[in-house]
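User: Fold this; tokens only.

Assistant: Input:
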Amino acid sequence: MKYRMIISDYDGTLAPAYGKVVQKETIEAIKAYREAGGYFVLCSGRGAASAFDAMEYNNINCDAISAFQGATIKIGDTITEDGLDGTTVREIVEFVRNIENRDFVTFNNEVLLYDGNGEALNYYVNWSTSYKNKAAVNIPEYTLSHGGYYGKLLLTKMPDENTDRIVNAIKEKFGDKIVINSGSEILIEMVSATCTKYSACKKIAEHFNVNENEVITVGDSTNDLTLVAFGEGCAVESGTPELKKAAKHIVPAADKQPIKYLIDKILSGEDPFDFESK
């Protein structure tokens, strides 16, 4: 088998859109790929609880799961956690609020913390049903007293809101510590520069003794830029223009089962990258 590992994003890639449902044919294809000796990996920006829950809900057995883009990695029963330290989270929130008052969410594997009461924040918190433990807190005060590590920090926004000024200011101030991107039109995501989807792919491939040129990665949004930088990077046809420009290959849109498409090609010995984008 030429491509021994497939690493896929979840929302908008493995699943057609935000939600839990993966098409039955894709689930069956993943099972066949693993039975043939391939490794299937989920690499999602979702929090750990949400990523684990999505795979269980769909009855998909993964060889590894990476959540928070790359801060939490689960291989078998072993879970490793890393991320943004409390000091960095606090400094970012305080820095942004000196520019303008914004709502934030941060979390680790156990608790979702939210600070604010805007429409986008409330929507996201209510949508995050996998987190049973949620708390409204003052994030700077919480991180000062609790310390610890946080998978990612989210700044919530309205879909049509231009946040370029804030994003550019954050990049200029904290660009050596974080990677900033987005997997949703209501979120600006910040993760540790040492815990990206690229670093997660590298760790997981090395664990299973799979070479980078034997790995296919697939995503749809700007938080997949570091994902498709590893191996044979693919963007779904329905993905963002920025990701499609960065990827080596284009594969069918999320609602056309791109993972099944790739697996069918691999298992039949065909070229998996012969898709012609319309």
